[in-house]
Backbone:
């Protein structure tokens, strides 16, 4: 019974009919829930009444739903008696053929895409078995989509009856009235016509018939009755004299091999067909032959005789005239992309620094430490396009599912006041999606228009927000009772119903790095389960493998994206890609088309310490390279407290500038952050991240590493305290309190009950409080919706007049030892600045003392007199870490590695 517009099937509303065939009627429908159009095929009762066939079909539909291939129309699912599929606009190839022969180049481009679709399906064990022009859509942009894969049968099987009548479109004799059976029979392989077991070589035959018809402009096996068509398939040989004379010889050979009636002699790989067509498109028409040839039973013998004669002549003359060769496998192409002169690939200890579009055309990557900007490289063009106006320190790029948008994060390094942003890839202005409370920890942009992402704040889990903008909603919350810290690095599965992500856990005793697992969440129930221990940064690729990373490299394993289960052993497939142990991120990405991009170097975050003066002259220190995060001078200016994250978890050490020695201060077994010296230089305060909530808070440790840490201030759930400075009298510790999106500067009494007292909370985003060495002033940072500025207030009477120190954006103020100047970092890395402070608090004009330099990670403290600043700079091996490495056709490498080659 025909459906009328407005009829509801599940969440879909029928819009109108699209067509009908032996396997049911097809309608255009609108998904009211996701707001997208789809094609719905109402399956006939004869199909649905066969329980075995329905079960087999549903199994294959699940597999095909996982096959995210650009030339296969995707299956969305089943609704009642209907199959829901991707709606593909454009005309059928049968309509194209109705106008006559297709020009050679166009025919080969269409054929190559069909071959690619069949190759991908065959690798999953799927045989189409009903390939024909009516099941091939050609969009206006030339993209080809093969339809009705879901009505095929599993590879290597036949219908229970072995009858032709069980062909997907041959459901009843009455169908001959519509020409449907004739159309299907004309593309059946000989073994299929005989009702024998069918495998992927049946698709190879049908492909050859379709290619023949495109080139010749005529039906391969015409006939008015099914019996006539099938008889012709079984006995007739197609003449090649009707194929254009300009057809390259390899394409003629390909046709012959596809149309061998004995499938033992037939081409057995669509990959070979795709490669031959690709070579022909590249070579043009140089190999075209003008001889008209007919495929006949004796042709093979004639060719062999002629070949033998030529080889014999070659042996006599010593000249090789020709050599028979098997088609070569798809070649991989590897190369490096260097950033613009004087620039560096972004090196970030916590976030990934690159992304490749799904179609493989664009690579987005950061340059300059901390996110100076993002560069967009189009692989079909020379040079990079710097993306401008992105906001503060843009980083962590990712593409929308249709590659029309580039998503990214913009915000200062500490994550306060950050924004999730998007930018049109083809040009336009950035748009804000949402404000988020911390640095981005992975994002995945779905077909439903939502973005699922993680954040740098622990206990937040995964969040979801509309790409059109809005307030993020919580998707998952870490199970703290099970030791979970956070949920990071999400990647969607092709069915749109599951997201695979990484789970971070507290490190075990004696182990520095965070424990990382991979889990999957069902978006409908929002329940998740761990599926792989000791792994992070999952990425599903179109070959049906899940890639993941750890400190040993990048691995791949066969993966069922519907059941979300591994189906085989893992193999290391990328060596040397940068892995960020602090968060489990990795610097690699793979397009749906099989292009790999990565940054080499497992220790990209390694840095060194140096002095830099106000003329920009750099003087290296004797400190060895480490993953330095913070460096603070002691009150006597002879030691530096440094935060080092070599193993992925922060630890505090003291570097003695006179002796050149390192002493660890914070004990193993937990993370340490935000060091601050006591006034007498004997102790260091720091934020401790213990294995349980009750362990977290501010601790004090002897600067020589002796003794045990002493608790100073405990944190409540979802609350953190970061020490920033101690007052000169040693009575008070200044801390930044963070709760959600609120940042406040507080004072903690060190000689009594350590109850924090709020000092300032300007706009709820006040942080980085530093009391001057003479104890008279408090300098601090105030974040806003548009940036940050440095302010100063009297101390301890902070209710006095507030004065703005910076005038064009500023962060992280540091006092000169004599209290007569404030140094600060320019907002969005605009250099280092100094503002002189008079005896009564009068402020001079900001003076640029160090020009912007993207290679400076941080300039964090001031030596005596303000003549030198500490510089933390990346250790760069220009031969390894300053290039993006790109591998085209990397799926061929993946296949070989998975096969143990």
Residues:
């Amino acid at each position: 019974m025909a459906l009328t517009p407005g009829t509801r099937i599940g969440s879909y509303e029928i819009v109108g009919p699209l067509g009908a065939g032996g396997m049911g009627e097809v309608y255009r429908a609108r998904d009211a829930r996701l707001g997208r159009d789809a094609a719905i095929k109402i399956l006939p009762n004869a199909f649905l009444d066969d329980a075995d066939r329905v079960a087999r079909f549903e199994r294959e539909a699940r597999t095909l739903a996982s096959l995210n291939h650009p030339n296969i129309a995707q299956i969305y699912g089943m609704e009642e008696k209907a199959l829901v599929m991707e709606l593909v606009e454009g005309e059928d190839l049968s309509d194209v053929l109705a106008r006559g022969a297709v020009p050679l180049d166009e025919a080969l481009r269409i054929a190559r895409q069909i071959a690619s679709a069949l190759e991908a399906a065959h690798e999953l064990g799927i045989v189409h078995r009903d390939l024909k022009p009516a099941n091939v859509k050609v969009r206006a942009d030339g993209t080809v989509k093969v339809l009705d894969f879901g009505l095929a049968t599993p590879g290597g099987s036949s219908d229970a009856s072995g009858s032709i009548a069980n062909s997907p479109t041959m459901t009843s004799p009455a169908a001959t009235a519509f020409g449907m059976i004739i159309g299907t029979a004309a593309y059946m392989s000989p073994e299929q016509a005989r009702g024998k077991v069918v495998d992927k070589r049946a698709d190879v035959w049908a492909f050859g018939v379709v290619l023949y018809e495109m080139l010749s402009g005529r039906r391969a096996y015409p006939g008015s009755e099914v019996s006539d068509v099938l008889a012709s398939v079984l006995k007739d040989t197609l003449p090649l004299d009707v194929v254009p004379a300009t057809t390259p010889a390899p394409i003629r050979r390909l046709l012959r091999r596809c149309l061998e009636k004995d499938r033992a002699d037939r081409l057995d790989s669509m990959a070979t067909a795709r490669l031959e067509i690709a070579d022909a498109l590249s070579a043009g028409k140089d190999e075209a032959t003008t001889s008209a040839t007919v495929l006949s039973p004796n042709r093979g013998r004639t060719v062999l005789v002629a070949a033998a004669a030529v080889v014999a002549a070659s042996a006599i003359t010593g000249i090789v005239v020709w050599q028979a060769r098997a088609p070569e496998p798809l070649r991989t192409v590897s190369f490096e992309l260097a950033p613009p002169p004087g620039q560096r690939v972004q090196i970030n200890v916590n976030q990934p620094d690159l992304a490749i579009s799904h179609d493989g055309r664009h690579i987005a990557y950061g340059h300059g430490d901390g996110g100076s900007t993002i560069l967009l490289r189009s692989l079909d063009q020379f040079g990079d396009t710097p993306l401008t106006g992105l906001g503060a320190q843009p980083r962590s790029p990712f593409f929308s599912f249709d590659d029309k948008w580039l998503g990214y994060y913009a915000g200062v390094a500490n994550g306060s006041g950050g924004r999730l942003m998007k930018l049109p890839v083809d040009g336009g202005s950035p748009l804000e999606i949402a404000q988020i409370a911390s640095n981005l920890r992975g994002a995945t942009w779905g077909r439903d228009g939502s973005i699922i992402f993680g954040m740098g704040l622990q206990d937040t889990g995964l969040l979801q927000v509309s790409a059109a903008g809005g307030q993020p909603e919580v998707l998952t919350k870490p199970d703290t009772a099970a030791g979970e810290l956070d949920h990071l690095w999400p990647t969607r599965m092709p069915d749109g119903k599951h997201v695979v992500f990484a789970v971070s856990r507290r490190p075990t005793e004696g182990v520095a790095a965070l424990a990382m697992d991979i889990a999957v969440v069902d978006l409908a129930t929002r329940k998740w389960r761990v599926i792989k221990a000791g792994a992070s940064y999952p990425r599903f690729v179109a070959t049906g493998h899940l890639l993941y990373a750890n400190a040993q490299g990048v691995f791949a394993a066969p993966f069922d994206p519907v059941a979300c289960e591994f189906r085989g052993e893992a193999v290391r497939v990328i060596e040397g890609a940068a892995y960020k142990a602090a968060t489990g991120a990795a610097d690699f990405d793979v397009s749906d088309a099989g292009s790999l991009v990565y940054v080499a170097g497992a220790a990209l975050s390694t840095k060194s310490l140096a002095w830099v003066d106000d003329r920009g002259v750099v003087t290296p220190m004797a400190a060895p390279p480490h993953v330095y995060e913070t460096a603070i001078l002691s009150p006597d200016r002879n030691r530096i407290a440094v935060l080092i994250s070599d193993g992925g978890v922060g630890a505090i050490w003291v570097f003695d500038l006179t002796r050149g020695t390192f002493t660890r201060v914070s004990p193993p077994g937990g993370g340490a952050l935000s060091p601050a010296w006591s006034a007498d230089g004997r102790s260091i305060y720091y934020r401790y991240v213990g294995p349980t909530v009750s362990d977290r808070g501010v601790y004090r440790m002897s600067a020589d590493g002796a003794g045990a840490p002493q608790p100073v201030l405990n944190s409540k759930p979802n609350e953190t305290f970061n020490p920033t400075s101690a007052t000169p009298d040693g009575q008070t510790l200044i801390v930044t309190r963070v709760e959600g999106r609120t940042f406040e500067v507080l004072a903690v009494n060190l000689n009594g009950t350590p109850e924090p007292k709020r000092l300032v909370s300007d706009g709820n985003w006040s942080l980085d409080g530093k009391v001057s060495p003479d104890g008279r002033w408090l300098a601090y940072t105030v974040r806003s919706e548009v940036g940050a500025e440095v302010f100063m207030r009297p101390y301890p009477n902070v209710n006095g007049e507030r004065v703005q120190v910076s005038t064009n954006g500023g962060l992280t103020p540091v006092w000169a030892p004599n209290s007569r100047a404030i140094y600060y970092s320019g907002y969005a890395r605009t250099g280092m600045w100094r503002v002189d402070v008079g005896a009564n608090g009068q402020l001079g004009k900001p003076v640029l003392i160090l020009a912007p330099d993207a290679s400076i990670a941080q300039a964090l403290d001031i030596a005596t007199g303000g003549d030198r600043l500490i510089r933390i700079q990346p250790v760069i091996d220009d031969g390894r870490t300053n290039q993006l490495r790109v591998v085209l056709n990397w799926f061929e490498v993946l296949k070989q590695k998975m096969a143990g080659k």
In short: The chain has a mean pLDDT of 80. The first helix runs from residue 45 to 48. The two ends are 55 Å apart (CA to CA).
